[in-house]
Specification:
Chains A, B, C, D: Residues 161-228 form the Transglutaminase-like domain. Four copies of one chain form a homotetramer. By secondary structure, chain A is of the alpha+beta class. The first copy, chain A, has five helices and twelve strands. Chain A is globular and about 55 Å long. Chains in contact: A-B, A-C, B-D, C-D.
């Protein structure tokens, strides 16, 4: 039997001046919506290596303690089996029906002061609700923001991006999550691989919690990419979090010089 | 047999202009370190009421959909059975030994841009480590901040408080968590009741993840109150979160006028 | 001969705990566009009192060194003789034709990070220019902001107000100035009295530097009030500055408790 | 007669995509404390060129409207005749004795939220006053900040630098001004040339308004460089402002690509 697969190849190399703790998160998450057909992860030897569950039990974080130059090669082939309902038709859940695990995604986070956007959201998006409202927000972002590498940095919040009207995928996702939360819709940040991303790199999108069309009164997470580059039918999730503060592919607890970072994502037929 | 108990009485009243979703979190958490001897929660009738697990499964959040005036009366008696190691003697865990659930508490959150404080923390607290370092931070906060009600608001971050040198328990806790995270120590925000709080009110402190003296290579959360008002031997936890964004006693998804808020916490012998 | 006058009555009272330097700016400025028919200023005795020229030589600032309770009573009658061109018809000056004294009003100031709004201004107001563009901005503010006392404080910037969509006259003026500067139009903050302000109080508006219809190639300052409450034909200027940081009616260099603040402004026929 | 001179050579080149207004400020200011022995300014032809007085009438700003590549060569030789009192011995002026033109330099500006630092300044520097207090602040900055190019950007405020403890001359000057203003001492930002700056570039320092030792009850501006690189006996002032927002050497009202920027400053004997 043939199936289409998303194929990922990642090379990372970095240099540490002294023994340093490093947290990595770059592997395709082993979750029901994506079947990992094959995966190889080649790592240099480290003084310590451990994998721990990542946020919401989606994917793993990898702890290293390493020194000098460190190289990572990762290749995986993943069959994406995600249900893809028509977002526009999805109902909003009443806040009081939200399950406990979705509640934290209503709240403000490091880069997302959503509370401050309630008036804007009511004025601009108050005429629709649920999935239609989310799509209106995503369209608004697509038409009001410009994709400009290099204008944002580690301190840039969704509020900054909203004002300056430019940024990269991280910033687009922040604004999307900010507007959704301001409307009372739980929203989280997703790090993923997608073949449509240009230039190829790690990518970030939003995920909103709306009705699950397959479960009466149930809710589910649905991918939304305001940059329009990712196709949820092909996207392979790495991990999730409140915002970019939670899902870096590399966090270093000490000086770390990035030497190489390459990502290649393609679609292919797999047997 | 006699045991000492912490006794809590809370009265809340608020008015809603129309049917509004409300999220409450004020009940003593049912967790091993505190035995709930008795608890009564008297609530006005609501169109919807559900309890869901709160963050890290500590305590419950209560969803309401209510209208008009709404009254809450809560009384509980709780025997605190918390282990109280000498914080100063607790070792720091290597970052690479942290369990998955502690990792999110290393990261920046809404009110806590900890990354920006790494230089300050290295300079000011670099000569100690682990619990001794945490106590040095707590002492620094106690001697450099003034407890001044009314100077902070819903936008005030730990960075604001660090600069302005004044605030209330929420702000003290934010600075404590910020300094700990900047030193690579996981830290979270804890909402609790304590008889030593003056004037009596909901209280907030920090909790840091350091070695568990009872478990080889294990880690545990330890309470630290930079205001010095709470005594961990008496404190009754309500819930935890990344920072104040996560653990309000009341979050309203629409206009809500607070009419009454009274908290009384005492110590007594209980049979 | 009869002329219409704007009549001002102000009462201020404040208490100082110890000898404290106070800077006051509340008197009608003695400038060509407004003729001061009468003015009385009754001040308690102070250890020191001096008037110094205020920003751009518009009005005076008054230094006091006072102690205990201090009372100010001010009454003035002012004939406003301001030229009132049709703003919509005023041309924009090329930046390179701006006189030296207008240049500082192109730059960012404490509450006005105008540079960050260039993309927004180009997108939203790029189809008009000069006075027509300024009026489009003022209209946009009038229809997108709500006048809500109490939501802003001494840290609230024009960027905050732009996002939160609410504020008072100070905040409306900040957004107006921010948008104008982002379009390369010098704009300053004006403190003034106007009978149309409800409830009566000190008022703040913007002033933009556009062509002077009476002087070939010349430029002049023109009042614009995005709240719509002030009528430039009746407004009596107190002072100007980069933003609210520059033109408080009272700045205290030490603790100061405000006891009374009342402002009454009316129109009358004067002989 | 021989005198020592500070010799300046500057080359700037930039490219404009279309006719663009440019504001330049790089010439040695023609003010009593520095005698311009010789100066040549070679500019490409522009469609418009005008010089206007800069802030506080110190130096000139130059308006250009240019297109394509534009080259600037500037050379000057300047004899510095600045009075250099012992800063430590200078008294503070009472606020209420400050002249009108110094008052604006007490207030917050774009990058300098000085009001928020009053508690810190009282605690850390409350035991001294006047020039001694200023030097204590400058020493504190020198020992608590690290000079690190590349960590600050156009949004970085003095508050950011205070927290992050690193920056360049612009950031050091901002913190110096912020602390002085928080103590009620007028302080402004000075752009200048100095042979001691490494690597050679435009430089920025602070200037504080304290007693003028030569004038009874008078005040004067005194240079203070918390980086320690500039020597006021050799520094040649270009211009002043509230903070870096006011004194860029180049402000472009449209896209502008910097092609070359070189500054050379030396000391020599001049006849």
């Amino acid at each position: 039997m043939l199936c289409m697969a998303t194929n990922i190849e990642v090379t990372l190399a970095f240099r540490l001046e002294q023994p340093t703790d490093i947290l990595l998160q770059f592997e395709a998450a082993d979750i029901p919506e994506q079947q990992i057909l094959s995966a190889t992860c080649s790592l240099d030897e480290a003084d310590h290596m451990a994998r721990v569950p990542a946020q919401d039990d989606i994917g793993l974080r990898m702890w290293l303690n390493a020194n000098c130059r460190y190289d990572v090669h990762y290749a995986a082939s993943v069959a994406v089996e995600r249900l893809l309902p028509d977002i526009a038709s999805l109902a909003r859940l009443d806040s009081h029906d939200l399950p406990g695990e979705a509640v934290q995604y209503l709240f403000d986070s490091r880069y997302i002061p959503a509370d401050r956007f309630q008036n804007f959201v009511t004025e601009e998006f108050g005429s629709s609700t649920g999935g239609a409202q989310v799509l209106a927000m995503s369209d608004w972002i697509g038409s009001h923001l410009s994709y400009v590498p290099g204008v944002s940095n580690a301190n840039t919040t969704g509020m900054d991006t909203f004002v300056e009207r430019q940024g990269v995928c991280r910033d687009y996702a922040h604004v999307m999550i900010m507007l959704a939360r301001a409307a009372g819709i739980p929203a989280r940040y997703v790090s993923l691989y997608d073949p449509g991303v240009t230039p190829q790199d790690f990518h970030a999108v939003a995920e909103v919690f709306l009705a699950d069309p397959g479960v009466k009164d149930g809710g589910a997470w649905h991918l939304v990419d305001p940059t329009g580059m990712a196709d949820p039918a092909h996207s392979v999730k790495i991990g999730v979090g409140r915002d970019a503060a939670d899902v870096s592919f590399l966090t270093s607890f000490g000086n770390c010089e990035m030497l190489e970072q390459s990502v290649s994502v393609t679609r292919s037929e797999d047997e």
